[in-house]
Amino acid sequence: MVAAHWIPGGASRGRPCTGRVRVGRGGWLVYLPGVLPAYISIEQYERNMQRLDANRSRAQSLGAVRDGPALLAGLVVCGRCGKKMTVRYQRGRGGKLHPVYVCSRAKSDYAAARCQQLAGPCVDAHVTDLLLAAMAPAALEVSLAAATDVEAQREQVDQIWRQRLERADYQAERARRQYQLAEPENRLVVRQLEKDWEAALAERQRIGEEYDRFTAARPRTLTAAERGQIRALAADLPAVWDAPTTTDADRKQLIRHLVEQVRITVLGTSEKVDAEVVWAGGHRTSAQITRPVACLTQLSYYPQLAARARELADSRYTIAQIAGRLNAEGFRPPKRSPVFTPNAVSDLLRALGIQRSRIPASRNRPALAPHEWWLRDLAAHLGMSQVTLDAWVRRGWADGYLHPQARLRVVRADPAEIERLRALHQVPRGQHNRRRWLSNQAAFMNTEREGTDDNADEPRL
Prior knowledge:
Radius of gyration: 35 Å
Number of helices: 15
Strand order of the largest sheet: 3-7-8-9
Structural class: alpha+beta
Mean pLDDT: 80
Distance between the termini: 55 Å
Helix content: 40-55%
Order of helices and strands: EEHEEEHEHHHHHHEEEHHHEHHEEHH
Largest sheet: 4 strands, mixed
């Protein structure tokens, strides 16, 4: 509750009554609560204002609970700069949204480098496990509170039914009085009033029968079987958490009741992340979690992984055997892959300069047209991953097709195209599909010229 009044100190120079200053309750001269009747109490008003202030999308507030899958939206804070991290979504396979927590305040305000970012599911899963473990001892209290809430809701529904019955009784009584006050000589009026009275009585009887059926099916107090079902659900909190009927908004609301802040610090560019959970009440829980990274060189154990892969390759193990050994020894690939696959091992050995092929040799492949490359050979020539080059072909960034006989990808690339792909490979990650502001303006201005081609100045990636 804030008062706005005129104060000369906040006015413009030479205009003493133009300054509007808002003063909090502590600076009021007069405060008389409850003098006049109001729709809501002062306490309810203050709670509403606090909730509105918390729902504002600002850096100082949590923001309103939304339906996105990011469970820690508004709670994640950057451990490097102390700013609140925002949420971005990436669409994965099947259209599923994957949240990403990003700290880009310095980049947005001062055009500086991005502070840090990490995939959201790893942090959400860590905080969820801590939350369920913390709530396990309070399962009995949760069941009792749930039973109380259910009974309160049934009491509210029962009160609505009683209000409907009261209105039906009033309508029937009103129709009776109108019928009795009518003059008998007015036969048409009396006949209509009699019909209205009968209709009101029939409506009262119908509502009464529906109310009796409702109370028989769902009494106001819970039965012993219903209380036992609630206790069973409260004892199995993970099942309730993962139930299809539990929405992401419900999970976020529950997390905000128990968690005040989650401070995240990515160790360099590696997969290791220091996570500190600040609980309601001030208790802190610190742990180190693992995030998915984009490439092998970001892994903190990449030197040990490379040395072990070289050792296994020198021992003449097959690619499948190398993958099994690496998985058994605890090595894990980047991104969201749980284990090393033969394809991942092939990429690793190729990055280390070790040629191990599981596809037909070059002498057994069909001949290609001039300026055509096998995808494997062009990727090695450019010094990049086959997976990345194949993704470029699928997106249309490179010209290629599937060979009908060898069933392998072929890329068309003359010397100029090879230089373009090499320059594109040097672009930082995440900038391939972005155009500079001046390029966008040039393309927009060219479309306004009469008789020009819309795609004449379109920059080619």
